[in-house]
Design goal:
With 748 residues, the protein is mainly β. Helix content is 3%, strand content 55%. The protein has a 22-stranded antiparallel β-barrel. A five-stranded mixed β-sheet has the order 8-14-15-12-13.
């Protein structure tokens, strides 16, 4: 509970109404959202609504309904009347990952939001794959079950992920370590570019903010049950949610399960060990009384994913097969809000425990004489032990105060603390036992007028890293007859990294329908444990990595320029960026070998990335609308050497046809250019085109119950292709062929 005194906050109740601006008729079921308290109410059949226990007047609410323009309204009295303008476009949503909960096009930085319906339309089984529908977002993949997001050419520890209001740490520095999150999220927001102001170290490339499960206000049981089947991997995916409200309490729970065998390519062969299985469960509760709100969330997830090492020879088998990786997540978060006369206090605390284990062949000589495909593991916990066994405990605290609105001014001030403790208990050691602490203090300010909006912020961070010394055992091979074991001692580290960062952004409306956005932000990233201390074989990447304890923090400055046009039937935008990174950390291949693998050493050099996205949404009168997006990014070091894993130029065109209120279809064409501007020793890739198709029908059972049947066909032309960001491109592993996805979702 808060250790604060509660102050009188002004109006306790707001009474309002919503009507159609053209006809004057009452608007029923309009959503009235109070961002500061994450609270939602709906207008009744007369268009009326009531807000209880509100912040001090004035404060903002957002009113939205499909078929109308989303409207942000300042509440300045105890009664309010709201007129909504009809619109053919989907309703615009509030962005909660940015500090002032603005609408998507009212943020000075580039941010995009994707909802659960779009996630499901992607047909993807992992979140990073589904996020590729957002312009500027790609995914590094090691098969269909292992993928991590890439924002404008940056990934891993340069992108911060938030889940259940907490920072999500899952050893994302590893090239073969995926995000390990499914596609059942309510919505996902992506900030493109540095946002260290709010998220601290590592957010120099962007932020992935996964919105947690919503709470219901109904006092009868609500929820959903979904079943999906995916033809290419014989995949079965089940997910469910339930929720109920009782008085001052709201409850919710969710769960999911996924099971996939080896997938089939368009070349009619199965990719061995591309199988994976995953489970998740969550429980959420919220208590609200007067000026106080408490939200508690518990989450669990586990996943076993095979590590692909060969191109052909897979089986329709769901059993885990060596080699594979196993991850487990346990998470507890507690968010408390207290509304006082001096502002809205928000305290978020939590604990996350993430475990990663990797299982390999215990005796390579014996296995050479055996059939690898028959070496299945019914229970991996019965094995001799994981070759790699790491446990990361994260404890965090975030306290901020949103000060009362003063005229056109809004301000937020806060402090953050985070501690990570890594421990090892496996045969091998990728990174040492270590303790890492982050401390941050920040201030953000927003000014809004009819002609101008600006956002300004400052932040100071300290990161402390302490590691234990450890010994690496490896084989030294002088020639075929002289093979012996050697030991290497990696010294302990005790270092501090500090950084001062700022951001300034402006939105200027050129006309009623056109606006320009300019933003300059700095960010920083302290080197991670792998970059500082590695000395040994990284099996997932098939190289011998050598860290550098003298690495400095990466620091960057990104300039963004955006241009938006919004008319009755057209939404069009252009986002350009230039990102200059000082002391960019990268792996540099040497001419030496160890354990039969080439040695890669961590080094630093300045680097630059630039590019942008174009998007257009044309919605003429009628049932058909068109969406187009184009994205490009270029990255290179100061010496002209290309950065690795930079996504190529791509174009996406979608046509949506709303046949009726309950039946809709879409078809999409993605054209990806070749990528021959690659980093050292990186494989070039060819261009390709992929066509997807989807259709759904909604069957109303009662006023509160609905069944949605959905058919998706990914890669409908059965095209052979290999994405440039696939880590399996070096062995020629193609993407899945034609994949038919059948889904049924029952909502009640």
């Amino acid at each position: 509970m808060f250790a604060f005194l509660s102050f009188f906050t002004g109006y306790a109740q707001i009474i309002g109404s919503v009507s159609n601006s053209q006809t004057g008729e009452a608007v029923e079921l309009a959503q009235i959202y109070l961002p500061q308290l994450d609270n939602v109410v709906y207008s009744d059949v007369n268009g009326s609504f009531t807000l209880n226990s509100t912040p001090s007047i004035p404060f903002n609410i957002v009113v939205s309904l499909l078929g109308y323009e989303t409207k942000e309204v300042v509440v300045s009295s105890s009664t309010i009347s709201i007129n909504l303008n009809p619109s053919v476009f989907e309703m615009e949503e509030v962005i909660v990952s940015t500090p002032f909960s603005n609408l998507e096009n009212q943020n000075t930085i580039s941010v995009s939001k994707i909802n659960s319906e779009t996630l499901q339309e992607s047909g993807a089984s992992v979140l990073a794959d589904a996020l590729q529908r957002i312009p500027g977002v790609s995914a590094i993949s090691s098969g269909p079950g292992i993928a991590k997001p890439v924002i404008r050419g940056l990934s891993g520890n340069r992108v911060v992920t938030y889940v259940n209001d907490l920072r999500y740490e899952n050893y994302q520095f590893g090239a073969d370590h995926g995000l390990d999150i499914g596609t059942t999220a309510k919505s996902v927001e992506v900030i493109k570019g540095p946002f260290s102001l709010l998220y601290g170290s590592d957010a120099i490339g962007g932020v992935i903010y996964i919105s947690p499960q919503d709470f219901t206000h109904r006092e009868s049981l609500t929820g959903s049950l979904q079943q999906r089947y995916l033809s290419q991997s014989f995949g079965n995916e089940t997910s469910a949610t339930i929720g109920i409200a009782k008085g001052k309490w709201q409850f919710g729970a969710n769960g999911s399960q996924a099971l996939h065998a080896d997938y089939e390519t368009s070349g009619d062969y199965l990719v061995p060990n591309s199988r994976f299985k995953a489970n998740s469960a969550g429980f959420n509760t919220r208590f609200s009384e007067g000026d106080y709100q408490l939200t508690m969330r518990l989450a669990y997830a586990d996943k076993q994913a095979g590590i692909v090492e060969e191109r052909r020879g897979g089986k329709r088998n769901f059993n885990t097969q060596i080699p594979f990786q196993e991850t487990q997540l346990n998470q507890f978060s507690l968010r408390q809000k207290l509304n006082t006369s001096i502002g809205l206090w928000n305290l978020t605390t939590g604990v996350t425990i993430n475990k990663r284990r990797e299982f390999e062949d215990h005796d390579a000589d014996e296995l050479e004489e055996e059939d690898h495909e028959d070496e299945l593991v019914e229970d991996p916990h019965d094995e001799e032990g994981a070759a790699l066994n790491m446990r990361n405990r994260v404890v965090s605290l975030d306290l901020n105060n949103t000060l009362p609105v003063s005229g056109n001014w809004q301000q937020i001030a806060g402090i953050q603390w985070l501690e990570q403790e890594n421990t090892n208990s496996g045969v091998e050691m990728l990174i040492p036992n270590a303790l890492q602490r982050d401390y941050g203090v920040y201030w953000l300010h927003q000014f809004t007028s009819e002609k101008l909006k600006w956002q300004l912020g400052l932040r100071y961070d300290i990161r402390s890293i302490k590691t234990e010394a450890f010994t690496i055992h490896h084989h030294e091979e002088e020639d075929e007859e002289d093979v012996h074991d050697e030991e290497a001692e990696v010294a302990k580290i005790d270092k501090n990294f500090t950084s001062l960062n700022g951001s300034l952004g402006i939105i200027y409306p050129i006309s009623e329908n056109t606006q320009i956005r300019v933003n300059a932000s700095t960010g920083y990233r302290a080197p991670n444990l792998a970059e500082l201390t590695s000395y040994g074989v990284h099996h997932g990447a098939q190289r011998f990595e050598v860290g550098n304890a003298n690495l400095m923090s990466e620091k960057n400055l990104q300039i963004d320029l955006g241009f938006d046009i919004q008319t009755t039937h057209l939404n069009l935008g252009i986002d350009g960026f230039y990102n200059a990174i000082n002391d960019y950390i990268f792996l540099n291949p040497s001419n030496e070998f160890e354990d039969g693998l080439q040695i890669f050493e961590y080094e630093q050099s300045n680097a630059n990335l630039w590019g942008g996205e174009f998007y257009a949404h044309y919605h003429p009168q009628g049932k058909i609308h068109f969406e187009t997006s184009l994205e490009f990014v270029k990255g290179e070091q100061d010496n002209g050497t290309a950065l690795p894993l930079i996504p190529p130029l791509s174009l996406n065109q979608e046509v949506h046809w709303n046949i009726s209120d309950v039946f809709a279809s879409f078809v999409s064409l993605t054209i990806v250019d070749k990528q021959d501007d690659v980093g050292l020793f990186e494989t070039k890739t060819n261009g390709y085109e992929v066509i997807d198709f989807g259709s759904h029908i909604d069957i109303s059972i009662t006023d509160q119950r609905e069944l949605r049947l959905q058919l998706l066909v990914r890669n409908i032309a059965n095209k052979k292709y290999i994405p440039h960001l696939s880590r399996l491109k070096t062995i020629g592993v193609e993407q899945p062929g034609r994949n038919i996805v059948i889904s049924a979702k029952y909502t009640f």
